[in-house]
From TrEMBL:
Keywords: Bacterial flagellum, Cell projection, Cilium, Coiled coil, Flagellum, Secreted
Protein name according to UniProt: Flagellar hook-associated protein 2
Assigned protein family: Belongs to the FliD family.
Localization of this protein: Secreted; Bacterial flagellum
Organism classification: Bacteria, Bacillati, Actinomycetota, Actinomycetes, Micromonosporales
One GO BP: cell adhesion
GO cellular component: bacterial-type flagellum filament cap; bacterial-type flagellum hook; extracellular region
Residues annotated as domain Flagellar hook-associated protein 2 N-terminal: 10-107
Subunit structure, interactors included: Homopentamer.
Residues in Flagellar hook-associated protein 2 C-terminal domain copies: 202-421
Function as written in the Swiss-Prot or TrEMBL entry: Required for morphogenesis and for the elongation of the flagellar filament by facilitating polymerization of the flagellin monomers at the tip of growing filament. Forms a capping structure, which prevents flagellin subunits (transported through the central channel of the flagellum) from leaking out without polymerization at the distal end.
Pfam families in the record: FliD_C, FliD_N
InterPro entries according to UniProt: FliD, FliD_C, FliD_N
Source organism superkingdom: Bacteria
């Protein structure tokens, strides 16, 4: 290890001098670092462009899916009836009109007994469900209402038992089905001291399609208040008995399809904006500055190709203006949602074919453009790696050069010190003569 005391003999600030000399020596490395910074900014810019192109591809892919064009929307003429569609792949369009005859209800039964003591002399209860299944519940350990309720709750029969205390030392054993519908109703045989009564009977929900006496009319039932078999893929839920002439329509969801087209157009405009940003050159009066990709024709060409998909129209269909898609003066794409909806509703098959064809065209172009940009990114990254290797090599050379300069100046200071010592000795000898 070489050490030195800056200018101890010479009076020169040799540490500062070494630092200045090393700045000159490092000019090549500094230039490389600047180039690396420039390339890294370019890579980031290319990645931003690719992100926008990927968004176009995703939106175009969604627009081309069959599920998009099978999007359906259900509407009901009654506020007490709701209709919702399920998967677009299974939902069918259609219309049904019906009367709500009854709602599904869960059974509630009760029996009374004194609050303490046995409520029955039987050691078991026999419960028969509405679907015909029969179960025995052991109550021999505790025949009180509380014991009976505990046994029923532990039997897992879909019946909830509770004990409600009344005035006068009596209690009520309340038995409630956990699910609605006739199949979930029940009867209970347990030799209770008082009769088991049913204030709320189990019922199924019932709809009458067409009049009961009408030719072709029919009724459908459900253990819940939701019906899933009137229109394939649509669930119809009723909440009020006695509603008549309820109409449920399931039609193609034009708004959902239109939103998909808009998403693709928005993604295209997002890419135009990003490309313009990354290739811009600021020529304001105060300063001039270039963006990371200024002068990169290949990136600007992507915008031109995307715009060309609009201006070129579709073979066999013509101008995309029929779809509400057109170019603007500022180099973007506009979308007229009202026009698209009108043309789609007028001829769904033709507009579906044209739109999906255009979406495929845009998707393929976006995918190819991403591949091209990715190749450029990979090339730039390789260049950055190479320059970073060179910079590391410079670090080794510069460290060696700094060590050499430090040693040279230290040697100079040592030599000057020796000369000063000799000069002082000679002066002393001459003075003694």
């Amino acid at each position: 290890m070489t050490t030195s005391v800056s200018g101890l003999v010479s009076g020169m600030d040799t540490n500062s001098l070494v630092t200045q000399l090393m700045q000159v020596e490092a000019v090549g490395q500094t230039r490389l670092k600047s180039k690396v910074s420039t390339e890294e900014k370019a890579v980031t810019a290319y990645q931003s462009v690719n992100t926008k192109l990927a968004a176009i591809e995703t939106a175009a892919d969604e627009l081309g899916k069959l599920a998009t064009w099978r999007s359906a929307k259900a509407t009901s003429s009654s506020s007490t009836v709701t209709a919702t569609t399920a998967s677009a792949n299974t939902t069918q369009t259609g219309t049904v009109t019906f009367d709500v005859i009854s709602l599904a209800k869960a059974q509630v039964s009760t029996t009374r007994a004194v609050s303490t003591g046995d409520a029955t002399s039987h050691s078991s209860l026999t419960i028969t469900k509405g679907d015909g299944t029969q179960s025995s519940v052991d109550i021999s350990a505790d025949r009180s209402l509380a014991g009976i309720a505990s046994a029923i709750n532990g039997a897992g029969l879909g019946i909830k038992a509770t004990v409600v205390a009344l005035e006068g030392g009596e209690s009520v054993l309340q038995l409630s089905s956990t699910k609605a519908g006739v199949a979930n109703g029940f009867t209970i045989d347990g030799g209770f001291d008082t009769e088991v009564k049913t204030p709320t009977a189990a019922t199924d929900a019932k709809l009458q399609v067409g009049g009961a006496d009408a030719d072709g009319g029919y009724a459908v039932t459900s253990t819940s208040n939701t019906f899933g078999n009137l229109i394939t893929g649509t669930s119809i839920t009723v909440t009020k008995e006695g509603e008549t002439g309820v109409r449920v329509d399931v039609a193609s969801d034009t708004s959902a399809i239109t939103a998909k087209v808009k998403s693709m157009v928005d993604a295209m405009n997002g890419a135009f904006s990003e490309i313009n940003k990354q290739t811009a050159y600021n020529t304001s009066a105060s300063k001039s500055s270039a963006a990371a990709l200024t002068g990169d024709f290949s990136v600007r060409q992507i915008s031109q190709k995307l715009l060309g998909t609009v201006s070129g129209g579709l073979d066999g269909f013509g101008s995309l203006s029929k779809l509400g898609i057109s170019l603007t003066r500022d180099g973007t794409v506009s979308f007229d949602e009202t026009k698209f909806k009108a043309t789609y509703e007028a001829d769904p098959d033709a507009i579906k074919t044209a739109t999906t064809s255009y979406a495929t065209k845009v998707k393929e172009l976006s995918d190819a453009s991403q591949n091209g940009v990715t190749d450029v990114i990979n090339g730039r990254k390789s260049l950055i790696d190479n320059m970073n290797d060179q910079i590391s090599g410079w670090d080794v050379r510069l460290a060696a050069r700094k060590l050499a300069l430090t040693r040279q100046f230290s040697a100079m200071e040592t030599s000057l010190s020796s000369l000063n010592n000799q000069s002082s000795w000679l002066s002393g000898q001459l003075a003694s003569l």
